[in-house]
Amino acid sequence: MTDFDLIVVGTGGLANAIVLEATRANPDLRVALVGPRARPGAASVAAGFMLNVFGEQEKGALDSSVARSKFDMLLEAKKLWPAYLETLKAAAGGDDLQINYGTFVLNNGSSSVIDDENFEYIVAQALAHKAPHQLVNPREITGLAPTESCRPLRALYLEDEGTIPSARLFRLYDAFLSRARQVEVIDGSAETLTLDGPGGHHAVSTREGRTVRGRHLVLAAGAFSQKLLEQHPDLAKRIPRLFYGTGAAMHVSINSAIPDFTFPLPDKCIRTTNRGNACGVHLVPYGPDSCYIGASNLVTRYYEPTPRIAAVHGLLQRAMDELNTNFYKANFSMIVGHRPTSADCYPLIGGTSVKGFYLASGTKREGVHMSPLIARSIVAELQGKPPVFHAAFRPERKLIYDMTREQAIQKTVLHQFSGAYQHGLKLPYSGWEPMLADTLRKSVEEVYDKLGIKSVGIPPELLNMYKHGHITYAGE
Fold first, then answer.
1. What integer best gives the mean pLDDT of the chain?
2. What structural domains does the chain harbor?
3. What tens digit of pLDDT does each residue of 318-335 get?
């Protein structure tokens, strides 16, 4: 058994950022980073990594005070990234990686009214917060060549919302770790979590047989953190449950050796608005011959190492229909990540009632974006200082309900409609859409009524978790 000052469990964006920040704050700190080097299923590894704040907004997203607090954290994290990236490159021994600024948000007419509403909300929030932006002609966007039936109605260019290729980011983290003499990377899957053991130390044992102890322990293993928390039921019951927000995405490449197969790719991020319980379809450019396209989203209790056929089919269809018809002749490989989704869709960040034990999870698709700020907050707590991250998102708390029943039901119906259209729904004329909307609404209301939920609302992507008893409604 080996003793450390700090143990960090996880190998994704949050875990790596915490190790970097901790070793910068105290170069003598002895740190163990525990997790498989291949990072299977990590959300940030399978992400396109968009530094999008306004591009992620949905109609009414900032109506509650807690939502505005999270929005403030996202804005603050985005401001940190330029300097943070330079710090990481220096720690890794140098690199020319830069943020590719500029994001086009499309208002697509092939989905449903939710696209229009969310697009208009993004424009309004960009205006209200004086974020650099401009409305542009979709036909002038490089590399955008959708089918005629899926041409975007409008497009917004967000000047300071950009992207970073996640694969290159993690190569930098790996280079940093190989140079950090005070950090030991333990290549193994954490299997046992011992809190407040002999001498007040915490311990982690891996499936491969290694055990380490430390005075401080940060659990930053994304959705995989839940199984370790459940080994301590008294603590786990005070923390909102974590689920797997499983997302399928693609690495796409063009075979430039075949002249007829080449076509121009976008040089900036292109995305639709959030819809269908996911973040829409989006493209992150890697270079003239390759890009990332993502992503689906399905919240489950289970780890799924490979994508579902429906997710792959939908993503391929959206890529060819809404982004570029020429993708039919491109090559691709699938990747799968699991966004850590809490039982109220809000983050779980900071210290717990167990001295020296901290949690950093529940960040959905925003973990790597917020990682510099979250790392700074966790390390401040390690040093006995006040946390930087907002107190509303402490791990031990009651579930946050920040929508009314009516708001949430309406939003759920819109997302379900949007998802159905994206998967090929076609309705006849003469009022079929209102009839189907009424049917969907009644099915959602039935879930609410059976659970006795009278005034608050459930996040649309978690409705099935409530319906099947995986989240318990504790009353208003």
1. 94
2. 2-45+167-242+343-393 (3.50.50.60), 98-163+244-339 (3.30.9.10), 405-467 (no CATH)
3. 999 999 999 999 999 999
